[in-house]
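Data availability (excerpt). The following record was deposited with the supplementary files.
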Amino acid sequence: MNNTPELVALFTDFGIGSHYLGQVKARLITERVSQPVIDLCSDAPDFNPRAAAYLLASFLPSMPKGTLFLAVVDPGVGSDRRAILIRSECFWFIGPDNGLLSQVVARSKEAKIQTIDLPDLSNRSRTFDGRDFFAPAAALICNGAAVAGEPVTPASLVGADWPSQLSEIIYLDGYGNGVTGLSGDGLSKKLLLLVNGVSVPYAETFSGVPIGSPFWYVNANGLVEVAVNQGSAVEKFGLDIGVPVQWLGA
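Predicted structure:
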């Protein structure tokens, strides 16, 4: 991997089309970031670093090596929570130490973690670290400069004791599908998924069930997802972030 990133990926709960996204991008340009910047995810679960941690980690297999993830789901902005920088085998991550980056560390074999110390920032808002703190830190890395800070052990991170999989709904997409924090790797097609008291069968694709029928499948990010063919699982099951799910027949 090169010493500087090749891509900056924004992962936030700012909202699709939000002016906050525009301001972060403008700050990156002001700080002379020349790498492409993409909105990887702008609608991560609001104020929910725990759910967002599993969603963020699910994107990694499809992302190009050398990506810097600027991750901001930060309900504790302005508090004494740490800001951290992580360099793994393939990626950089910048974000708050509130559990958001815990799962990318758990999936890394050689993560190097440090705090971020940017003492010379002027006109910093205490409520918009995405623009005024994390973006300047990302710019330093993109421009090949060092970021000051102290080493951090993985065990000291918020979320270090969280499970490798989360039996909950972690994301709701625009179609009304519910993504869980469960890996779909190696699962039996005979398993039923219990969702709000209803057992849901497996199907490989939407066309594998009649229109209006619910099913679970393994999505493109490798996570178990609950859906309704040409319908809304959110409406059918009353889904929300944090709703528990459970395997039957495991």
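Summary of structural features: The first helix runs from residue 19 to 30.
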